[in-house]
Amino acid sequence: xxxxxxxxxxxxxxxxxxxxxxxxxxxxxxxxxxxxxxxxxxxxxxxxxxxxxxxxxxxxxxxxxxxxxxxxxxxxxxxxxxxxxxxxxxxxxxxxxxxxxxxxxxxxxxxxxxxxxxxxxxxxxxxxxxxxxxxxxxxxxxxxxxxxxxxxxxxxxxxxxxxxxxxxxxxxxxxxxxxxxxxxxxxxxxxxxxxxxxxxxxxxxxxxxxxxxxxxxxxxxxxxxxxxxxxxxxxxxxxxxxxxxxxxxxxxxxxxxxxxxxxxxxxxxxxxxxxxxxxxxxxxxxxxxxxxxxxxxxxxxxxxxxxxxxxxxxxxxxxxxxxxxxxxxxxxxxxxxxxxxxxxxxxxxxxxxxxxxxxxxxxxxxxxxxxxxxxxxxxxxxxxxxxxxxxxxxxxxxxxxxxxxxxxxxxxxxxxxxxxxxxxxxxxxxxxxxxxxxxxxxxxxxxxxxxxxxxxxxxxxxxxxxxxxxxxxxxxxxxxxxxx
Length: 484
Ligand code: GUN
Ligand code: ZN
Fold this sequence. Notes:
The protein is 43% helix and 19% strand. The protein is an alpha/beta fold. Strands 8-7-6-5-4-11-10-9 form an 8-stranded parallel β-sheet. Strands 17-16-15-19-20 form a 5-stranded mixed β-sheet. Helix 7 (171-183) runs parallel beside helix 9. It is elongated and about 90 Å long. The mean pLDDT is 96.
């Protein structure tokens, strides 16, 4: 089968792409709703009408199902589910890891997935839980990788093989696993065994594990984050370079009366209003929804609408170069998500390499913005500026006689020559009244420039409110104070 992944636009490590699976194309980032043939509250045909281009279902359920097994074999999965798009099938791995009673081996599940006409098959990987020690993580990773290799022989020129990246919490193993599956030429590479991290809000570790896997994976791999589908964390995951998500949350949460929002989950029982613009919420009151015989289905539809809309919002943000702003906004919904966001920012020097050169704007949203890739890149570029003689850095961007160079100052970036005044990021930064964090970050820029030009003599002219900060941050610099 002809398959490939093409990246069209980038922002941070996030991508807007096209996954080609035979004749079909999936635009990414994409959400693959999880479909259980026995519990279809929203039908795949309805999903297709909502813009869903790919879904995921569990081959093991079909294998075990008296009702669906034969029909999946003939006329096939697409026909049984009445879905023309891409269908990915998961193996029984997750059931195996949770219930330990899967009576299928790797060959059997792969042959079955192939026979039912799956577009993307998953070998029987071993999802190593976060608590596992290194020995176990290594041993299970070896088995997973050998099953991925075996899959290539079993599947041949059949459906696309998704090659799971395991390794537990061990970052070097995740990186090695990423490198190993990419060496095998895998196009779709799910990062596995992260559900327990997400369920327990362990977002800092999630970020570490995903970034480690990404280090090893080819930049051309289409990365699936297994089991991730809550809208609150999708922007963060995309920013790390994940392209595919699968959501069972829309249905599971609906069953429990839980109402998804991009800021977190609400209980339908607590809602007086339905703060959402989807067709369900506009046509019903909270009371309608609570008392409707169709409550579960309506909630599932709302949950799916919200999640799909977030995917579209993320795609638009990648086009505009505003993904950092969206991540910043979403990750303030929960303190542990904020931890994950801060972990991502710690990796900004790494992410900078994949980030795009220009964006529509740089919107300052507080201290965290000072750590963004654009600031890291600007500071790195500053060290390449050659200056000589007397250099003025003017906080109000005024040139003065008596200097060989007069630079402006734009926090959180720092000094800039007049020629860069209109270029990104200086010209496109949307910055409120200056605060200490951003001025400190800008001063770091001055210090970098000064260190790179030890022969030049630097003077800063600033308002008196910043004089002490400048002297602290750039030791030995001459500061001229404008009276406040
Ligand atoms: N679903 C959620 N996590 C996993 C995983 O690690 N492997 C597989 N095959 N399916 C999953
Ligand atoms: Zn809604």
